[in-house]
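Standup notes
- DV: blocked on the single-chain target, sequence here:
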Amino acid sequence: MRIFSIANQKGGVAKTTTCINLGASLAYHARKVLVIDMDPQAHSTLGLGFEPNEFDKTVLNVLEPPRSPFRAELRDVIVPTRTPNLFLVPANIDLAGAEYRLIDQLGREDFLNSSIKRCPLDFDYILIDCPPSLGILTINALKACREIIITIQPHYFALRGIEEFMETVEIMRENLKHEPEIYVLITIADTRTNLYREVIGEIEEYFEERLFKTVIHKNIALAEASSHGVPVIEYEPSSSGAQNYLSLAKEVINFEKEKPKKRLFRKA
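- DV (later): unblocked, structure below
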């Protein structure tokens, strides 16, 4: 089982879009996939066709301290989506209170990881949708994963914004003794512009073999699909957005054979 966190402390860089559509594309390739929504905005939950407030139990129950009467095991919170092979651990706005509820709990950064380890899960992939912050929810996601996909929109400030995130990962490596692999995905890209051509070279130089070959192009079908609560492969399978994510899924599946050996951590 491979566990990915889709992360970036910056909002609006297609983290949720990637989580939903990579998950659906992996499911299309006959992989069993679990999406864990760790964002209080619950966009993965909404984007997969659910109303966040309809659930009695969410990922927040999984993050409750061991003696809490509200605690639930991960397997008890998983719900099937309308997409075959694709499942969800939902979230809602109540998750916003997790930062305060967990702040004085021993081992709070490991609650999600421990819940995954406690429950035998029959999934090929787990994709964790992180909030646009570097708080305890994101730390839980990073501690639980083995691989991180950082989504980057190709503009001049992209690399500068990644620096703080990379420093957080390095602190986690040193203090929590956890070293996930890091990969980078370019999203919301308009390859026709001069800006794209100017920035892409710098991104390629910085991330080298950690950069996915697949680029997620700017595509209206991706936004429309999310508003309809379905992955783009179901909404408009012939769109460039659907084809991009199918290509990314193939690359993720094959990446294990070509995993980069070089550790990635150096400042922009």
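- Follow-up: The beta strands are 2-7, 33-37, 79-80, 86-89, 125-129, 147-152, 181-189, 211-217.
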